[in-house]
Design a protein that fits this description.
- Two copies of one chain form a homodimer.
- By secondary structure, chain A is α+β, with helices and mostly antiparallel strands.
- Chain A has a domain of about 140 residues: NADH Oxidase.
- Chain A contains seven helices and five strands, in the order ααβααβαβαβαβ.
- Chain A is globular, with a radius of gyration of 18 Å.
- The model of chain A has no long low-confidence stretch (mean pLDDT about 95).
- At the A-B interface, α1, α2, β1, α5 and β5 of A face α1, α2, β1, α5 and β5 of B.
- β5 of chain A pairs parallel with β1 of chain B.
Chain lengths: ~200, ~200
């Protein structure tokens, strides 16, 4: 049960699922606490049941665990930007999310492949929240290096690299901006700024 | 509380969130049961708190309600394939999900815009499940017609059209395949088919 006064807990205008309200993306992870095998599998079980275009499930995950596979973890870590490496070096798990960008049936472009992968990862992140785990998705990585590090076939594209673990002590973060960001409130557009009735820019009554 | 013996309830190999286990995409919706205003807003509140690249929240929603806005609803319905129209004509709410495909700060392509929209919609669908609502996402629509129907600016692309409402009686579906599909079990790849350890195709231990 997270502290309801924590600055990252969403302040929704309408009552939403606990796991949506409580999910946020820390940079401070607990270096000493590993993710249990069964917990990790449950994350993928959650991703597994996401909907997708033609049920093609175009998402793939490559897992690098710091303790169990130090070489694979180091290779994955090295693909990140220096700023991401500064905090991600201590996380127990790094995940690559890869997207198959063509349909299996005809090799034509799957326009919804990235969209579907986003849905699967969203399910995974909410499942993680339910288990007390935290996640942070990163776009700051070298795609060619990720592809090489995990031997990703050409049919797939790396979408994000994600850190998974237990939230840790922000004061241990090396970069000052990362420390202050850890305590700044989350912000979002108001509903009227992204939901319209009937036609564009017409607010919901 | 859904019937645990319902063929669409996922049979997960690991314990997952109820809303993930119970979510599925019917075509049979209850024509007589509308979605309350507050329930609809809560869906967008859930979408609102999804993560996104640079927190740009590139998702937009256009809502067409059958009873409140029959003209807008009819215009949206007309953009769907004939097969989708066959079941979607009675749903209380149709939603267009639009994606802003460029970054706001520099107008460069946002490679993760569709991915992020998928995450927001995933949050929305799980929130809907928590409220006893069902959703079905459709790719079968005419994008130019959707753009015209809701006056969508050129900066945005329509990703999907979604039906929202309460699940209904499958025997009322006009197309036989739709009736039988409503009772067929959901299927997904096994975890070993989409999760790898360290490098591609290497199964998780």
């Amino acid at each position: 049960m997270p502290d309801p006064a924590h600055p990252k807990i969403a302040r929704p205008d309408h009552e939403i699922l606990d796991v949506i309200r409580d999910r946020w993306s820390p940079r401070a992870f607990d270096a000493d606490r590993d993710v249990a095998d069964a917990d990790l599998r449950t994350l993928f079980e959650a991703a597994r049941w996401a909907p997708s275009s033609r049920n093609e499930q175009p998402w793939r995950f490559v897992v690098a665990r710091r303790r169990q596979s130090p070489d694979a973890f180091a290779a994955m870590l090295a693909t990140l930007t220096r700023k991401n490496q500064a905090w991600a070096a201590v996380v127990p798990v790094l995940l690559v999310v890869a997207v198959r960008t063509t349909h299996e049936i005809d090799d034509l472009v799957n326009s919804h492949a990235w969209y579907d992968a986003g849905q699967a990862v969203a399910f995974l992140t909410l499942q993680a929240t339910a288990q007390g785990l935290s996640t942070r998705q990163m776009q700051g990585f070298d795609p060619a290096a990720v592809r090489a590090a995990c031997h990703m076939p050409a049919l797939y594209e790396p979408a994000i690299v994600m850190a998974v673990g237990y939230a840790g002590d922000p004061s241990r973060l090396a970069i000052e901006y990362h420390r202050t960001d850890e305590a700044s409130p989350r912000s979002r557009r108001a509903i009227r700024e992204f939901v319209y009735a009937d036609i564009w820019d017409n607010p919901l009554p």
